[in-house]
């Protein structure tokens, strides 16, 4: 708000007297002044409130603080008020509730006449290539969920047989390389804790073979063979990508750990903004072993991902209404009847998202393992990630 000379010239004398009574400094050109004494009293009342009530009262003002142009509410900082951070404000959004609602909406059967315009809008918005779909006829998909989980033609994604590890999904490479100092990069320069992401190491009794170093850092506990290194690769699935994911190599899945959590967006911009984003979000960690030692694949949930599905795990239920923060659920595929776990062949169907999300691979390999990638490149399921 600014009181200009033109406004003064057109205003009446009564307006001048009202403005002077309201606050004498209001008529100073180019400045918006707040009655500081009244604000200090109001802030004092807010400080006596409980934390939940204080947050409830502060958030509307915080939203205005970030939305209004030219720092209109910045004078409030002079009397001791501080806005809630953007990260805290975003974390307060009920993304799990919104995602469950989106999941319900995805299951609603669309009228036959409405399917083509709805799906065509989605295809145009996110650049979906329907020529690769096993069924190109849009009227075939009864609801959005079936459209998101559409299958591809067999020849659309040939599996590379020359390299030991392939991409488990379509997507964009956010980061890859060796795991150093028990920290993994979600995007360039933004890291998260390896132990926070995977959770505590499972009992050595459940392992196919014990770690090479029985004690030490969490990274050393995962490495099972002398001379090996730990590697990681992060693949972001956009909403327009193929939503199923496959086995990236020949390996055996022995354990599943499900972390209920938030469902914040995992797009690259958000990953740069929120530290340890992948550790906050709901995720399903599959661990086991391959010919070079430890191997894991983690499916990370995101906003509007109604569910994460693992085809061979019928006991897995994601995006539940209630959960305890920081909790996780373990399930072992190693039983008395099956002492090895679930064998997976390279390229075999493994699971699916109901919308775009992220896949994180963390695995052990010899020091001469080389990635065939560039950060930021687009990749498709079946293409090479790396080999010895």
From TrEMBL:
Keywords: Decarboxylase, Lipid biosynthesis, Lipid droplet, Lipid metabolism, Lyase, Membrane, Mitochondrion, Mitochondrion inner membrane, Phospholipid biosynthesis, Phospholipid metabolism, Pyruvate, Transmembrane, Transmembrane helix, Zymogen. The modification Pyruvic acid (Ser) is found at residue 357. The record marks 356-357 as: Cleavage (non-hydrolytic). Its EC number is 4.1.1.65. Pathway: Lipid metabolism; Phospholipid metabolism; phosphatidylethanolamine biosynthesis. GO terms for biological process: phosphatidylethanolamine biosynthetic process; protein autoprocessing. It catalyses: a 1,2-diacyl-sn-glycero-3-phospho-L-serine + H(+) = a 1,2-diacyl-sn-glycero-3-phosphoethanolamine + CO2. InterPro entries: PS_Dcarbxylase, PSD-B, PSD_type1_euk. The active site is at residues 170, 246, 357. This is Phosphatidylserine decarboxylase proenzyme, mitochondrial. It is found in: Lipid droplet. Its main location: other. Binds 1 pyruvoyl group covalently per subunit. Belongs to the phosphatidylserine decarboxylase family. PSD-B subfamily. Eukaryotic type I sub-subfamily. Heterodimer of a large membrane-associated beta subunit and a small pyruvoyl-containing alpha subunit. The keyword Manganese does not apply. GO terms for molecular function: phosphatidylserine decarboxylase activity. Residues 1-33 are mitochondrial matrix. Pfam families: PS_Dcarbxylase. The gene is PISD.
């Amino acid at each position: 708000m600014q009181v200009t000379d033109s406004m003064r010239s057109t205003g009446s004398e009564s307006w001048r007297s009202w403005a002077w009574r309201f606050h004498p400094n209001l008529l100073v050109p180019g400045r918006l002044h707040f009655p500081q004494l009244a604000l200090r009293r109001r802030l004092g009342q807010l400080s006596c409130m409980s934390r939940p009530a204080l947050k409830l009262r502060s958030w509307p003002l915080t939203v205005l603080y970030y939305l209004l142009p030219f720092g209109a509410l910045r004078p409030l900082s002079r009397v001791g008020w501080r806005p809630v951070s953007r990260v805290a404000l975003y974390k307060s959004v009920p993304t799990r509730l919104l995602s469950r609602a989106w999941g319900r909406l995805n299951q609603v059967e669309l009228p036959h006449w409405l399917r083509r315009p709805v799906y065509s809008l989605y295809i145009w918005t996110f650049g979906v290539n329907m020529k690769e779909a096993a069924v190109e006829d849009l009227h075939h998909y009864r609801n959005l969920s079936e459209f998101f989980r559409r299958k591809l033609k067999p020849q659309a994604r040939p599996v590379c047989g020359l390299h030991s590890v392939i991409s488990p999904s379509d997507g964009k490479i956010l980061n890859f390389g060796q795991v150093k100092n028990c920290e993994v990069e979600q995007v360039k320069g933004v890291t998260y804790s390896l132990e926070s992401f995977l959770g505590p190491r499972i009992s050595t009794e459940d392992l196919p073979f014990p770690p090479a170093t029985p004690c030490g850092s969490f990274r050393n506990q995962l490495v099972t063979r002398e001379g090996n290194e730990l590697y990681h690769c992060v693949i972001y699935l956009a909403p327009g990508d193929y939503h199923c994911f496959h086995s990236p190599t020949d390996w055996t899945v022995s354990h599943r750990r499900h972390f209920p959590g938030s469902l914040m967006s995992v797009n690259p911009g958000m990953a740069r903004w929120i530290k340890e984003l992948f550790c906050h979000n709901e995720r399903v960690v599959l661990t086991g072993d391959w010919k070079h030692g430890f191997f894991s694949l983690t499916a990370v949930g995101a906003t509007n991902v109604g569910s994460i599905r693992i085809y061979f795990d019928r006991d897995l239920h994601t995006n539940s209404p209630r959960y305890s923060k920081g909790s996780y659920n373990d399930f072992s595929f190693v039983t008395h009847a099956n002492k090895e776990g679930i064998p997976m062949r390279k390229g075999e169907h493994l699971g699916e998202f109901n919308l775009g999300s992220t896949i994180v691979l963390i695995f052990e390999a010899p020091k001469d393992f080389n990635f065939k990638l560039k950060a930021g490149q687009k990749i498709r399921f079946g293409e090479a990630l790396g080999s010895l």
